Amino acid sequence: MQLLHVALQDGFIHEDVIVRVNDEAVFQKKDVNTRFQIGFADSFELNVQDGKNKVEIVLPSKQRSESQTLEISKPMYLSISITSDETIEFRASDESFKYL
Amino acid sequence: MNEYDVLTLVDDNGAIGEQTPLSAPAALPTPIPQPIPPFPQLRASGLYEWKREIHLPTTPIPQPIPHPIPQPTPTLSSPIVLALRQELRLDVDGRYPLMVASGTSFFRFTARVHWIANLTKTGLNSWSGNIWYKDGDTAQFLYTQVQISVQRGWFPVQQSATVTFSGGGAAEYSLTYEYKSSYYHPVEFEFDYEKGVTPVTEIDTHAHPNRPTTLPKETLSIETVYRRVGFEVAKSGGDSAIPGPPPGPEQKWSDNEMHDAMQVHWSRFSNAPRWAMWVFFATQHEMGSGLGGIMFDDIGSNHRQGTAIFYNSFISQAPSSDPAPDAQVKRMRFWTAVHEMGHAFNLAHSWQKALGTPWIPLANEPEARSFMNYPYNVNGGQTAFFSNFEYRFTNSELLFMRHAPFRFVQPGNANWFDHHGFQQASISQSPTFQLELRVNRKQALFEFMEPVVLELKLTNTSSQPQLISDKLLSELDHLMVIIKKDSKPARQFAPYAHYCWKSQVRVLMPGESTYESLFISAGKNGWDVAEPGYYTLQAALHVESTGEDVVSNPLRLRIAPPQGYDEEFLAQDFFSEEVGRILSFDGSRVLNGGNNTLREVSERLGDRKVAIHAQVALAMPLAKAYKVLEAGDAGQPRIRVLPPNPEAANRELSDALLEQPHAAAETLGHIDYKDYVDRFSDHLEQQGDIQEAMDAQETLLNTLSSRQVIDRVLQAIQQRRDTYQR
């Protein structure tokens, strides 16, 4: 098992968010908001199996969803942001996120 | 070496030849003090002020008097509207000159107008340029150009600047401002710290070997960084240690606890907009060591007054391979303090500029070497960042802090992230286009529930023909409109639909304009313009052919309060998504709830302008066959064609468009009014009602002619009318 840390970062403004990992809802929250001064909205952690894992974010009010499959063999930090053109962006890192 | 290094008599620490402080009495000719400096004032940049004490007179004011407000508006002759104070910020030399001037006029006690112009040097002491930004009561400030000349003196009190405003149809007007300061705004900092924490408020710029080779060696303080921005920095003198949270797992600060600490310990705290800021150096935030600092004050009514830096966090851990870890930690602690203070001046992160509610389109700068970027997020990480970081903000950030309307910048004023770092669009120094946002009425006053239709006018202001897309103003992908209701955050207009046009290139000749209408009241965000009150709207258009971002005038408009119970009652159903969509798409035969509301509006509010919009939206889909997609047998979708109802359509359209044509032209806007009448008369012609079709065009011609619509449009109407006759 490996740690998967998921951080919702930029671009969330009164957003209802569902995150599914391997098709199972692991995070569901209403009114998620980015604190733009640190570029952070919310985060959660879970343990996942080594190997391929699918992470999907659903934004019901925008009728948008996006997914990414990650090869996980060590602790992974995954950020999800909504860009100004409404694109959902994933960024994976093996280092914990730092905010200022 | 820049111009600043050669010319200035005032250094960033205020140590040499410091200027008149902002709090000094009004500058008047005074005896020359001793000792006499060897050179006259060499720096032109700084804050200038014109001030006039006006007591409300009971008799007419004798003429001539300086009159900063354009003459054509009759009410301006009343002495009560005379400017009481005007500020000029001239930014043409010194540290990081931007070649910009901005000004603020305070008049009628509560009203003000703010302008910004880009400048070109025209002589030893003179500059000129176009005003590209206005904010406030812009209807009273028509000017589009400035010429500025500086009269230098041996002493600050002898220096002045004369600004000549021109353009915009207003009479040319000159005003002489007295020099006040080499800085643009005053600000006061207080650095408090948790017991046991030693704040880093200055560094040796050469302490770390990884730095730009050209970086001057100096002891750089936080105050100096912000003096170079253009702030006249003072310290409150109240810097002090404050107790930390009790030891144990809860020994961390929450935002609320820091907000409480700010109220208790900040010697200058007052919950009001002030040019003052509390900076708190603490151990750790409750988010843990992953948070290096935060502008915590987005709580309560006056944001951005307090900011914190956490020393028990990642900023105190140098990378394992760092050649000078102590210097790196000190640098990051210093950098973080300046960064968090930048947030308190409403600056966004470099990669976030396009998010939130910027005033005009912003470009992200993910690779900027700025205090507002994360060093470890650029390509090459923080080693790459600091190898060419010059301890400064970007020019666009400087422009915001020096020249934006002060309420956007001043701590405790505009909410955090509202109007943040507003000027990063690719605005040309010599714009080739002008974008005008307007409404087809003398005063931008709308009845309650009256939909707002804007007119966009794009003019080629260059001396050369320009190639543009014939759908440039229709392609909303290239157009951003910001809607700001007073005292509410700004919102970006989100239309219900973006159209994919097959566009063609057309030539816009010098001086020629192209026009488009825009229904702005409702969109995917809901009804952005609905509640009574004052709104400011501004548009920015990206012209792909030149790469230019053209920013419009800010348009100020007012929605009047409801006139009676009927309006208030119907408004509950009217401000719905269905009605918004019906009005936006000129009708529907599917959205029955919305249609019922519009029918009720048409019947019960027949004397109100909203009734005209309702009638048009109800009639248009009846004029011809209407296709509806519905579920057929076995759930298979099928298209059903609803027959037209020409009699009902004719009756509604005739009533809406031709009975009170001036009211219809005003509320629908000239462009849409013509479009609706054209469609109506074509419909009449197809039915064989030739005379009625010609009469409709005749009414259109007379109406738009009397409303001074351009000849090209009037000729097109005549041609259409004559075509029916043949």
Q: Please, could you describe this protein's structure?
A:
The complex is a heterodimer of chains A (100) and B (726). With 100 residues, chain A is an all-beta fold. Helix content of chain A is 0%, strand content 61%. Chain A has no helices and eight strands. A four-stranded mixed beta sheet of chain A has the order 4-1-7-8, with no helix packed on it. The termini of chain A are far apart. In chain B, strands 1-2-3-4-6-7-8-9 form an eight-stranded antiparallel beta barrel. In chain B, strands 10, 13, 14, 15, 16 and 17 form a six-stranded mixed beta sheet that branches. In chain B, strands 19, 22, 23, 28, 29 and 30 form a six-stranded mixed beta sheet that branches. In chain B, α9 packs across α10 (592-604), α11 runs antiparallel to α12 and α12 packs antiparallel against α14. Chain B is an alpha+beta fold. The model of chain B is unreliable at 1-34, 54-83 and 422-429 (pLDDT under 50). Chains A and B meet through loops of A and β16 and α4 of B.
Provide a quick synopsis of the model:
With 100 residues, chain A is mainly beta. Chain A is built from no helices and 8 strands.
Tally of separate helices of chain B:
16
Spans of chain A of at least 5 consecutive residues whose pLDDT stays below 50 are none
Helix content of chain B: 10-25%
Radius of gyration of chain B: 30 Å
List descriptors:
heterodimer; A: 100 residues; mainly beta; 0% helix; B: 6-stranded mixed β-sheet; 25% strand
Chain-wise SSE layout:
The complex is a heterodimer of chains A (100) and B (726).
Chain A: E1 2-8, E2 15-21, E3 24-32, E4 42-48, E5 51-59, E6 64-72, E7 76-82, E8 88-93
Parallel strand pairs in A: 1-7
Antiparallel strand pairs in A: 1-4, 2-3, 2-5, 5-6, 7-8
Chain B: H1 3-7, E1 46-51, E2 83-91, E3 100-107, E4 111-118, E5 120-123, E6 126-136, E7 145-151, E8 160-166, E9 173-181, E10 185-194, E11 202-204, E12 219-221, H2 222-229, E13 231-235, E14 241-242, H3 255-265, E15 276-282, E16 293-294, E17 306-310, H4 325-344, H5 381-387, H6 395-403, H7 406-409, E18 433-438, E19 445-446, E20 453-460, E21 466-469, E22 479-485, E23 491-492, E24 505-508, E25 513-519, E26 522-523, E27 526-527, E28 533-543, E29 548-551, E30 555-559, H8 565-574, H9 577-584, H10 592-604, H11 609-619, E31 626-631, E32 637-642, H12 646-658, H13 661-668, H14 670-686, H15 690-706, H16 711-725
Parallel strand pairs in B: 10-13, 10-14, 10-15, 15-17, 19-30
Antiparallel strand pairs in B: 1-2, 1-9, 2-3, 3-4, 4-6, 5-6, 6-7, 7-8, 8-9, 11-12, 16-17, 18-20, 20-25, 21-24, 22-23, 22-28, 26-27, 28-29, 28-30, 31-32
Helix pairs in contact in B: 8-10, 9-10, 10-11, 11-12, 11-13, 12-14, 13-14, 14-15, 15-16
